[in-house]
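Lab notebook, design round three. We kept the backbone fixed and only want residue identities now. Task for the bench partner: fill in a sequence for the structure below.
Input structure tokens:
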């Protein structure tokens, strides 16, 4: 039953039927709470521009499973988009401390450092982790050229 509801929710979200997706994810949560359901509901709320609800759902996903790094990264991305750079940076640093390190997380952290004017930290983080994949992520955030100027 839950698998069917989850698939309906996922398909509705994929097809842009966001209110329907929200309804199905809420039904899923009445049956069983999981970090994946909370995370996906948060993603629906982001697309609906209901950011406070999205943050709450990401936090519930993290509370369900603190090792569910997808929700951490999604919450950090939302915080960046809302220009809450200090909060995003703290969340990203906590991921690094837990040993979670990928190009997306590094790029978001470097972007935070740039906005917060911690240029030496941004340059150091880049030098320690430079790669084509990181460059692609930094380009996605529109900060690659600025980072390369710091080096």
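Proposed sequence:
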């Amino acid at each position: 039953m839950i698998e069917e509801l989850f698939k309906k929710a996922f398909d509705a979200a994929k097809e842009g039927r966001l209110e329907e997706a929200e309804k199905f994810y809420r039904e899923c949560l009445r049956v069983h709470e999981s970090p994946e359901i909370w995370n996906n509901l948060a993603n629906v709320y982001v697309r609906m521009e209901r950011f406070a609800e999205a943050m709450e759902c990401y936090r519930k996903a993290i509370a369900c499973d603190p090792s569910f790094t997808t929700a951490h990264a999604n919450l950090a991305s939302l915080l960046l988009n809302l220009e809450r750079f200090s909060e995003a940076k703290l969340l990203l640093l906590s991921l690094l401390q837990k040993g979670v390190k990928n190009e997306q997380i590094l790029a978001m952290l470097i972007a935070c450092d740039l906005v917060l004017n911690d240029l030496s930290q941004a340059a150091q983080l880049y030098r320690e982790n430079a790669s084509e994949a990181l460059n692609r992520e930094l380009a996605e955030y529109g900060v690659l050229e600025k980072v390369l100027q710091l080096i």
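Keep this in mind before ordering anything: The two ends are 54 Å apart (CA to CA).
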